[in-house]
Structures are given as structure tokens and as C-alpha cells.
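Hi both,

Apologies for the delay on this - the queue was longer than expected. I finally got the magnesium ion-bound model through. Below you'll find the protein sequence and the ligand SMILES exactly as submitted, and right after that the C-alpha cells for the full complex including the ligand.
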Amino acid sequence: MTQALVRLRNLSKAYGASIAVHPLDLDIAQGDFLAILGPSGCGKTTLLRMMGGFAEPTTGTIEIAGKDVTQTGPEKRPTNMVFQGYGLFPHMNVRQNVSYGLKLRAVAPEEIRARVTEMLGLVHLEEFAERSVNELSGGQQQRVALARALVMRPAVLLLDEPLGALDLKLRKQMQAELRRIHRSLGGTFVFVTHDQEEALGLASRIAVMEAGRIVQQGDPQAIYRRPASRFVSTFIGDANLLEGQREHGVISLGCGGSFPSPGADGAVNVVIRPEALRLNGTGRIHGTVVDSVFLGAFTKIIIELDNGKEIAVHIPEGQVLQLPAAGERVGLSWNDTAMRCLDAT
Ligand SMILES: Nc1ncnc2c1ncn2[C@@H]1O[C@H](COP(=O)(O)OP(=O)(O)OP(=O)(O)O)[C@@H](O)[C@H]1O
Ligand SMILES: [Mg+2]
């Protein structure tokens, strides 16, 4: 077992009476690309700022590469942070912004020039090197901030919503670039996002936050396939939640239908992803087609179940020949491996 590069223990942050981050433990391995994912206000930025040394923890410790850095200032930590609001130097041009940290470390001018040029190439800003950062778009400024942090080759790069200001196309491009940069530089990246798709696509591991707590962590597939709670299942991807009751190892769904499922008696939420549902005549449950929405790669069919609840089914573009019409009665089936039964507590 190799020791984690970053170890957070009992780390918390309170602002007066309000607790932004409840005491938590987190290990981040060398080479990880960790996404901290959660809704607005759940404490993501606060957690990242504590790792970077920009917010003082209320309790707990931060260890990086075997050293306790809890009391160490940001500039002395082996971390570099890209802020949610960029934090560029407005009176400097792009090249000066990206060079700044290397100059402070007294790196040789030729080396600074070479490394900065390489980084500006990576973020596609070569032509803007001499331009003032005030004369850049939000997305361009965000890329300057990224280059400025990456050029320092930090052991741990902390990114707070680094792609938030970019349009969808540029965002996808930069996601691919970030993955490539992470692979080629081989460092440890921790990035904050409220965009579940971005977290699934970029990260090697995801920590899901809810109201100041990490409620689940794991690789993207595990989080998507085996969400630990109702919150995680609905926050990560689309999820259908069917309410039911388990009694003597059999779940009876509110919308009709029952099936064996070992576990404790009581209320349960059955989570089924829209792409795991199949439309067919027999089906475990039944309903009526309300609407279908074409979304490019798939068509989303909304079905009203017999108890009035609506659920979604995704039909891939390749199978749209069999689309049912609105008002049509359909049966729904799924494989047991594609469903998740959570105790509703
Ligand atoms: N300096 C501060 N003083 C008081 N409360 C703060 C301060 N900074 C953050 N908070 C509060 O702490 C909680 C967590 O804030 P944080 O910025 O960490 O959330 P976030 O998950 O990054 O949200 P977003 O996705 O909107 O950026 C919020 O309720 C916020 O209002
Ligand atoms: Mg934030």
C-alpha cells in the first residue's frame, strides 16, 4: 500500500455558526484526477481553499507528501490553485501573467520563455501572448489562469470550476486537453465542479459533496452504477426513482409490480437509469407514453406510470424506428443488475 499524496484528517471549516465543511477525511493518491462534485454552496470551494492554504481550517490537518502543511502558507505548499474568478494580474499581459510564478522562483529567463510558450500552446493562446488580460474574453482569461498554474508543475494542482466560463464546444475541447495534460505531466489534479457530466468524463475518482459532507467517493463508473443514496443517484446523471415497500424479501412498487430483493423490511427507493429501461409488451410495470424529446444521440420518452408518476426512458438514436406514439400503452422491463434498491431513510 503506497501512502496517499494528500491526506485530510478531521478537516472542517465553520464561518461563525454556519458550517461550510463538516469534519471529513479524504485521501488523494499520487496521479489521481479527483473531481469534487456537488451543488452550489455545498462547500467545494471552501474545501479546495483549505488544501491550497487560502482558508484556515477550523479543525483538522492537511498532509501533503508526508508533511503536515496545515500551518504552511499557500506559496510554500507544493500546490497551485486556479480560482473560480481567475485571479489574473490585470496590469500584465498574458505572457507576464504566466511567467510571474517562475520569475519569483528565479528560474532562468530562457527556461521561463520556453516553458511559457509551451503552456500557451497547450491552452491555444499563442497569438494572445502579448495582449493585456483585460482585452480577453472570459474563456480566454480562464485559459490564462490554467496556463499560469500548470507552468509551475505543482505536485497538486487545485482547479476551482476551471472550465465554467467556456462555451460547450470549447469546454469539451478543454476537457480533452486537460486529460491529455494530466496524462503527459503526470501530476495530481483536484478539480471542483457542479457539472456531473464533466466529473464523469474527466475524473479518475469522484468525491460527491452534499451540504458540507463527502457523501460518496469512488471511480466514475462505481458512483454512476452504485449510487449510495437518493441524493447521489439524482445528482449524478438522470435517474428514475420508483418508490416501494420491501416485505419478507419482496419489493412491491407503488406503480405496480413486485420482485424479490433481499434486505430489511421497510420503504425503499428503486433507482433505474433511463438507458437501462426497455420498452416491450409484457414488462414489469406499465404506463402510457406522454411525450418524446429528441436529444441527438438518444430520444427521451416520458411515460406516466399507473400511479401517476412519470419516468424517462432513453432510446439510442440507432433504435428510434421503434418509437412509440404519445398515448400508446407500453410495458417496461430491466435487468436486475441495472437497478439499485436503496433503503429510504
Ligand atoms: N468567507 C465566507 N464567509 C461566510 N460564509 C462563507 C464564506 N465563504 C463561503 N461561505 C459559505 O460556505 C458555504 C460553502 O461555500 P462554498 O463557496 O465552499 O460553496 P461551493 O460548493 O464552492 O459553491 P459554488 O458551486 O456556488 O461555487 C456557503 O453556504 C457559503 O455561503
Ligand atoms: Mg465554489
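Main takeaway for now: The radius of gyration is 24 Å.

I'll put the files on the shared drive as well.

H.
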